[in-house]
Each structure stands twice: as C-alpha cells, then as structure tokens.
Amino acid sequence: xxxxxxxxxxxxxxxVLDHRIETAAGCSIEKLWRHREAGLLDxxxxxxxxxxxxxxxxxxxxxxxxxxxxxxxSGELPVDQALLARIERTVDQLAHAxxxxxxxxxxxxxxxxxxxxxxxxxxPRQVPTKDFAALLAIAQGAKLHENLVTHRLAVATxxxxxxxxxxxxxxxxxxxxxxxxxxxxxxAQPSPSPTPAGPSLPPRAPQARPAPxxxxxxxxxxxxxxxxxxxxxxxxxxxxxxxxTESTDAHPRTGFPPxxx
Length: 261
Prior knowledge:
With 261 residues, this protein is mainly alpha-helical. The protein is 42% helix and 6% strand. It has a four-stranded mixed sheet with strand order 3-2-1-4. The protein is rod-shaped and about 160 Å long. The N and C termini lie far apart (145 Å). Mean pLDDT is 75; it is low at 1-10, 190-202 and 221-232.
C-alpha cells in the first residue's frame, strides 16, 4: 500500500477552520506557517500553527483514502474477491483517517478560541459617501425638527445640512447613530402673517437715530426752528420788514411787465 505524499507548506488542502484562523491571525495560512518556522510567533499562535499542520496532514490522509476508494469502485479494475478485500481495507483506513481528522480538528478549535477572544474587533463595514457626510454633520450636533404644517421630520445640523428622517432611521438601524429619546422633538413653524384679530405686539421703544455723517466738502445745514443767537441767550437781531411794491415798468429785454407775486 502506498503512503500519502508528505505535506507541503506551500500547497495543502483547505480545512473547515482555515477562514477562522486567517481572520483571527490577520494573515494567510502560508504566512502563518512561515512565521512559525522563523520563530516570529508567540506561544498561542505557535501552538495554533502546529495543530493546524497536524489537521492539514489528517485532512490529506482523508483525501488520499477517499480518492483511492473512488478509483477502486470506478469500474477500471476487474471485480473479484481481491477487489472486495481491497475495498474493505480502504474503507477501514478511510474511517480511521476520519477519526484522526476529527481529533485534530477539535485540538485546532481549542487552540483557536482564545486567540479569537483576544483578537481586536473587526473594522466596520464600508459606509456610503452620502451616509458618511451625514455622520460628519451629525457629529457636530443635530436636532430633530417637526414641521407643524406638513408634520415632516428632518434633522437640522449646525452646518445647515438637512438630513431626511428616512436616512436617520437607516443610520440608527445600522448602529451608527444613537438618538437621545429624553429630549422632545423641536417643532418648526413658519412665521405667521399678521391678522387683525390676532394679538398686537407691544410698541417698540423709540430708538435714537445716529446723526448723519457729513461728507467731505458738505456744508452744515442751518437749524430749522432756532437761531444761533437764541442758543447763546442773546437777542436775535431781526431785519426790518419791507413791503414789496409792484412795478408796472416793462422789462428792458423782453418787453413784458414783471409777474405779480
């Protein structure tokens, strides 16, 4: 009976624990074996690499005996008593290889569990660009507003970014946003138009307007109802009143009499 080929570190059959081992170790099986040969692993990972080698060897034996049994029953060989004896012997060897494989798989699982428990958390899944922009806006602080007219909910952020309520629910379902339910929803109402029956606003106090600034080259305007002499507490001289007489003489240029005022 021929023996199964020696295991090769670069080419080996896949086992049921390969994906878990690669995830916990953070590298491929081939790299894990190379690090084990170079002595770069700690004790738990070194033990895991050793039991995984034994598991791969047992899996290779199972594959060898199964392929040998498939060749015996394929019909290529003449059917006789010798063939039946070889089939029975191959079945017994396959059953023994399966038992060894199950034992090595249990050892590998026991060595893998503490490494999985101490492994860091996996990176979160990829977030779409639109949701990532919404998360950046919500991180600065956000409030949930409800419109009193349309009863539509929206999220308002300090960066003036409006986020729909459907997008907020999707972020909450994915575990990226946690809402504080202790605060009520802020009601947003448009500014009402003034109506005659509505309450009137209190009158505003008159505010002093600043004096207009004088532009360069502009003269000061005279005071409308006062006089400089009155401001100085001195009597203001008044000009004598004259009565304007009408003239009937014609204008020397036009020849028409002056207009009556």
